[in-house]
Amino acid sequence: MSGLLAYAVLASLFIFAIAMGLALIRVFRGPSAQDRVLALDYLYILGMLMMLVLGIRYASDTYFEGALLIALFGFVGSFALAKFLLRGEVIE
């Protein structure tokens, strides 16, 4: 890995970590349930992006598979939470 790519990976991981901290603040202090759900959605997206960057850094396919699983489960979880907030029940 070249020096520039190594610095870019470290910088992006640092920025993603800061964004995760800000999203956690929104999860705990969100004024409404919808804000909390959006913050959780943002957290899983940031987690997926961090896994992708780590996959680039370590040149491992395992990180990419983990990112795919995070994306799938995050989408299903967001859908279930949105449906619960809309109707008050997940399973009809």
UniProtKB/TrEMBL annotation:
| InterPro entries cross-referenced by the UniProt entry | MrpF/PhaF-like
Cell location: Cell membrane
| Tree of life domain | Bacteria
Give the signal peptide range.
none
- Transmembrane stretches in the record are 6-25, 37-60, 66-86
Alphabetized Pfam families for the sequence: MrpF_PhaF
Q: Any idea which GO molecular function terms this record carries?
A: sodium:proton antiporter activity
Q: Which keywords does the record carry?
A: Antiport, Cell membrane, Ion transport, Membrane, Transmembrane, Transmembrane helix, Transport
Q: Which GO terms describe its cellular component?
A: plasma membrane
Q: Its topology with respect to the membrane?
A: Multi-pass membrane protein
Cell wall biogenesis/degradation: present as a keyword of the record? no
Q: Which family does it belong to?
A: Belongs to the CPA3 antiporters (TC 2.A.63) subunit F family.
- What name does this protein carry? K+/H+ antiporter subunit F
Q: Which species is the source of this protein?
A: Pseudomonas soli
Q: What lineage, starting at the top, does this entry show?
A: Bacteria, Pseudomonadati, Pseudomonadota, Gammaproteobacteria, Pseudomonadales
